Amino acid sequence: MEEEDAAADPYLPYDGGGDTIPLQEIPRRGSNYAMSNGGGVASSTTHLLDFLEEPIPGVGTYDDFHTIDWVREKCKDRERHRKINSKKKESAWEFTKSLYDAWSGWLVVTLTGLASGALAGLIDIAADWMNDLKEGVCLSAMWFNHEQCCWTSNETTFAERDKCPQWKSWAELILGQAEGPGSYIMNYFMYIYWALSFAFLAVCLVKVFAPYACGSGIPEIKTILSGFIIRGYLGKWTLMIKTITLVLAVASGLSLGKEGPLVHVACCCGNIFSYLFPKYSKNEAKKREVLSAASAAGVSVAFGAPIGGVLFSLEEVSYYFPLKTLWRSFFAALVAAFVLRSINPFGNSRLVLFYVEYHTPWYLFELIPFILLGVFGGLWGAFFIRANIAWCRRRKSTRFGKYPVLEVILVAAITAVVAFPNPYTRQNTSELIKELFTDCGPLESSQLCQYRSQMNGSKAFTDNPNRPAGPGVYSAMWQLCLALIFKIIMTIFTFGLKVPSGLFIPSMAIGAIAGRIVGIAVEQLAYYHHDWFLFKEWCEVGADCITPGLYAMVGAAACLGGVTRMTVSLVVIVFELTGGLEYIVPLMAAVMTSKWVGDAFGREGIYEAHIRLNGYPFLDAKEEFTHTTLAREVMRPRRSDPPLAVLTQDDLTVEELQSVINETSYNGFPVIVSKESQRLVGFALRRDITIAIENARRKQEGIMLNSRVYFTQHAPTLPADSPRPLKLRSILDMSPFTVTDHTPMEIVVDIFRKLGLRQCLVTHNGRLLGIITKKDILRHMAQMANQDPESIMFN
C-alpha cells in the first residue's frame, strides 16, 4: 500500500517523482507534454524560468580518467543538429553555418589525412637517413642516406655500387682504411655509439617532455575510442615528441617498428584538428568518430595500405563504427596515402613498402607448409604475449621500473653489440623483410640467392629454376637461424620500453625469417627428391616450382596474426603491402591457423593484454560472458556494505548535499522521491552538481548553506523566512538506464558494451536497490576468471 500511496496520491501536486503521471494532471499539462531527458532540454510546456536559465558552463564535461556517457553525448548532438536545421531557413548566414556544419566532418578527416601523410613521409625519410648514419656518411651531401648517395654512382655491379666513393664508412673517415680488423672494430664501436646516443636521446625526450609518447599507443587508443578519457594522450606535445623520438628509436636499431606509433601520431593529428570545429570539440562521442578515421589513416601511411587501414580501424581499434565513419575513414586513408605517395619516401615511386613480383603460382601441396607456418605464428604469438606481459608486470612491480633510461640504454647496448656481427640483424628491419620477401632473380646480389648454377647443354638457367643451394645460402641459413633467436628474445624485452615502439615490423621479421628458412628447405627438398609423389605431378626437373619469398610473406602474416589476433584486416594489409594479390588463399589459411592456435592458449591479443595490465576500464566486444549470474549479485551495495548514497528530490539543503559529495568518492548519485518510497526520479553526476552549486553561488544572490535544493519542476512549499532555494533540475538525467534485479548479467554486459554505459541502476518493482558501474562488471569478470578483482583496476 505504501508504494501505491507514494506513487500516485491524487491530492499531492505532481512533482516529477514516481513512474506515472496522475490522471488529474494530464488535462492540465496539455497533449503535448514531453519529458526532458536530462540534458537541460526544456519540454514544450516548461515554466518560463526554464527558458531564462542559460546552460551552466562546464556541465556535461568530463574529468581526466573518466568514461564518457555515450547516450548523453548522442542526445546532445541530435539536439544541436535539430537546432541548426530549424534555423537554416531564417537567413543566408544560418544556411551557410548549416553547410559548414555538414562539411566539417569531411574537412577534419581531410586535414588529418594530409597531416598524417606528411608526418609519415618525414619519419620514413629521417629514420632511413639516421639508420645509415650508424654505418657511415655521404661526403657529397650529408643529408643523403646510403642508397641515395650511390644513385649517381657509375659502378656496374651491386657489390661495387654499395661501396661507391661518395659513401664513406666511419673507419675510412677516422682511420683512413676500409678493410682489416682495425676498421671492423672502429665501425663496430661507431655503430654502438650511435645506437646508444639515439636511444638515450629518445628516452630522455619522452621522460622529460611527454611521458605518454612511449609504447605503441594502440592499447590506449582502443581504450580512448571505447569512451575513456586520458587528457594529454593525444595532445600537441605528445605528437611532437612522438614524431621525433620515433625516428630516434627506429634508428637506434632496437627491435621495434614505427607502424603502431604512426597510428598514435595520426590520432593526435585527428584530435588536434577536431578542436577547430565546435561540432567535434564539444562532443566527446563525435570526436571519437574522427579518431576512428585517423587510426585508418595511420595504418594507411604505415604500410601503404588504405583499405587495410579502414579494416584495421573497424576490426581492431574502433568501439563505435557507424557507416558514416566508414566512409570518412576510407577518405582519410585515401588522402593520407596520396600525400605519402607524393612525398615518395622509399624512392621507388610505389606506395607499398615491400613490393614483390613472384612469377610462379602456388600449388595445393604447399598449403601444408603454409599451415605449419600458421601454427608457428600462433605458438610464437601466445609465447610472446605471456612472456612480454610477465616482463612488463615485473617492471611495474619491482624497482627496475623506476629507471626507464637505464633500461633503454641496457637493451640498446645488448641489441647493438649482438646485432652488428650478423648482417641480417645489423640492417634495418624493414630492409631485412624486403630482402626476405624478394624472389631470387638474376640481378639479386643477396647471399640468399647464391645458388650453384648448373649448365644445361650450352644454356645456363638465368630465369631462376630450382637449383642446389650454394655455400652462400647455407651460411645465410645459419645467420638467419641466429637472427630468429635474437629477434624473438629482444622483441620480448623491447616492447613496453619507455620509447615509441611498434610491434608490427618485429613480428613480421620473425615470421619472414622462419618462412624463408622453411621456403628454402622445401625448395631443396623439391630439387633433391623431385621423384617423390608430392612433387612428381607438378614439379619437373629444373623447373621453377617453389618461391621461398612467398613462404617469408606467409610466415610474416602468420606471426603478426598470432600476436595481434587480427584476421581480415591483416590479410588485406599484407597483400596491399606486397602487391601479391593471387596469394590470398595461402595468407588466409596461415592467418586463420595462427589465430586458432593462439586462441587455444588465450583469447586476447597483445593489445588487449596490455589494456588489462594497465587496468583500463575496457569491455572487449570480442570476449564472451558465459556466466549465469544475476544483476543483484553484482550490484552495489552488497549485504555487508553501507547503504547506497542517494539524494532526495526536494528535502536536502546545500550543506547536506555538499557533505554527501565530500564524504563519498562516487561519480554520481541516484535521485529518489524520498527515503521512505525509494522511487527513482533520475541520476545526477557529481561533477555537474559541484559545478552547478559553484555557478549558482557566483551568479545568484541569496544561495546559502541552508538553502533548499530541489530537482523537481516546481519549488517545494517553504516557510516565508527561508533562504532562496536552488533548482538543479537541468543537470538531472531523467532517463537513466535501469534493469531489474533479476536481469541476467549476460544481458547487462551486452547493454554496457553496445550502448557504452558508465552505470546502470537496479530496481525492484520500481524501487531503487543498487547500482552497477563499468568497474563492477570488470571486477566481476575478473573474479569469474579466478583473478584478483582489485589488481586489474586502473590506478
TrEMBL record:
Tell me what topology the record assigns in the membrane: Multi-pass membrane protein
Task: Extract the GO molecular function terms from the UniProt entry.
Answer: ATP binding; chloride:proton antiporter activity; voltage-gated chloride channel activity
Location of the CBS domain: 635-701, 732-790
A Pfam cross-reference name? Voltage_CLC
* Keyword terms, alphabetized: Antiport, ATP-binding, CBS domain, Cell membrane, Chloride, Endosome, Glycoprotein, Ion transport, Lysosome, Membrane, Nucleotide-binding, Repeat, Transmembrane, Transmembrane helix, Transport
Relate the protein's function as given in its record. Answer: Strongly outwardly rectifying, electrogenic H(+)/Cl(-)exchanger which mediates the exchange of chloride ions against protons. The CLC channel family contains both chloride channels and proton-coupled anion transporters that exchange chloride or another anion for protons. The presence of conserved gating glutamate residues is typical for family members that function as antiporters.
PANTHER family tied to this protein: CHLORIDE CHANNEL PROTEIN, H(+)_CL(-) EXCHANGE TRANSPORTER 3
Name used for this protein in its record: Chloride channel protein
Source organism per entry reads Amphiprion percula
